[in-house]
Design a protein that fits this description.
- It contains one helix and two strands; from the N terminus they run ββα.
- The chain is an alpha+beta fold.
- The chain has one domain.
Length: 52
């Protein structure tokens, strides 16, 4: 969680100034950042399944 003040309506991802559209475990983010987060979660899930 960031200690910086929230920018209402803007993506919570550092260095991104997109419009926030989606709530994720990382915060309120733009569509592009949400897609990247989803891909990272999917990759982690696949790694976990392989390591079992």
């Amino acid at each position: 969680m960031s200690l910086e003040p929230a920018r209402v309506g803007e993506c919570d991802t550092p260095l991104c100034d997109g419009a926030a559209e989606t709530i994720t475990p990382v915060g309120y983010v733009c569509e592009g950042c949400a897609a990247e987060i989803a891909a990272e979660y999917e990759q982690a899930r696949e790694r976990d399944e392989v390591s079992r």
